């Protein structure tokens, strides 16, 4: 953890920045970065973990993998 002055300096260095993203750069990411130098959001991480561990997500990823492996790529197809 940084000293109080270092945390304030980090925060002030980003005044006017407009890079907000609810998933990748929210207020929890910002405060974590100011204090530790690492941009992190435990709230977002918990949501990603819960989402990616559901059976539906695993089935979706498996279906996409099989489609990408066995179906030919046609022009204009995503």
> Roughly how many Å apart are the termini?
45 Å
Tally of individual helices: 4
Estimated radius of gyration: 20 Å
Record field, number of beta strands: 0
How would you state the average pLDDT, rounded? 83
Strand content: under 5%
Largest sheet, in brief, is: none
What is the helix content?
55-70%
Q: Which structural class do you get from the secondary structure elements?
A: mainly alpha
Low-confidence stretches: none
**Globular, elongated, flat, extended or rod-shaped: what is the shape?**
elongated
Which assembly state applies to the chains in this document?
single chain
- The run of helices and strands is HHHH
Question: What topology does this entry show?
Answer:
Blueprint: H1 4-13, H2 27-36, H3 42-52, H4 55-70
Write up what this structure looks like:
This protein is mainly α and 78 residues long. It has a domain at 4-40. The chain has four helices and no strands. The model has no long low-confidence stretch (mean pLDDT 83).
Characteristic key phrases:
60% helix, mainly alpha, single chain, 78 residues
Give the structure's gist in a few sentences.
By secondary structure, the protein is mainly α.
């Amino acid at each position: 953890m940084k000293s109080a002055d270092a945390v304030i300096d980090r925060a002030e260095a980003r005044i006017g920045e407009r890079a907000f993203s609810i998933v990748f750069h929210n207020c929890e990411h910002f405060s974590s970065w100011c204090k530790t130098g690492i941009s992190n959001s435990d709230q977002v991480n918990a949501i990603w973990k819960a989402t990616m561990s559901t059976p539906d997500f695993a089935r979706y990823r498996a279906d996409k993998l099989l489609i990408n492996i066995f179906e030919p790529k046609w022009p204009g197809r995503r």
